[in-house]
Amino acid sequence: MSITKEQFRWLVTAWVVIEILGVVVSLAGQSSLPAPLRDYLASQSEADLTASDIALVAMYIPLLIASVVCIIGLYCFWGFARPLTVIVWIVGLILQVFAGPTVESGLATSLNELAAVLTGIILAVIYITPAKVWFDKTHDT
């Protein structure tokens, strides 16, 4: 069984929607957390910005821009979208390590895990399946 371009675009759309839902649920779900966790989140948001916080934000902004370019590239089957997807994923994982602890609801965690699975599926499709030729310059999109 092979995947069609339309199915691939639906897969990318599902990935984007789940990523956005994960962020929204994480932010909206803070009120449902137990009081000690809400207190921790409040203390984190009220704390003064450190140099490392500013550095992380300075790195996340280009990563967000690269993510948008990556998504557009995947939709349009641009050749650079394949390596850019990997780079964005790896840089995102590295930055997450330095971002410190996270507190979120179970639903937000589940959505984020689902987004990670969808990312893995997308990487498999664009690197392992015959669909990888869609990203060649010589292939007609």
Question: What keywords describe this structure?
Answer:
mainly alpha, 72% helix, elongated
How would you describe this structure to a colleague?
This protein has 141 residues and is mainly alpha-helical. The protein contains 5 helices and no strands. It has one domain (5-29, 50-135). The protein is 72% helix and 0% strand. The radius of gyration is 18 Å and the shape is elongated. The two termini are 20 Å apart. The model has no long low-confidence stretch (mean pLDDT 91).
How far from one another are the termini? 20 Å
- Count the beta strands: 0
Shape: elongated
Low-confidence stretches: none
Q: Which strand-content bin applies to the residues?
A: under 5%
Order of helices and strands: HHHHH
Secondary structure class reads mainly alpha
Tally of alpha and pi helices: 5
- Average pLDDT, all residues: 91
Please outline the major beta sheet: none
Q: What helical percentage do the residues reach?
A: over 70%
- The structural domain count equals 1
User: Rg from C-alpha positions?
Assistant: 18 Å
SSE order and pairing:
Blueprint: H1 5-28, H2 35-46, H3 51-76, H4 81-98, H5 106-127
Helix pairs in contact: 1-5, 3-4, 4-5
Quick structural overview:
With 141 residues, this protein is an all-alpha fold. It has helices spanning 5-28, 35-46, 51-76, 81-98, 106-127.
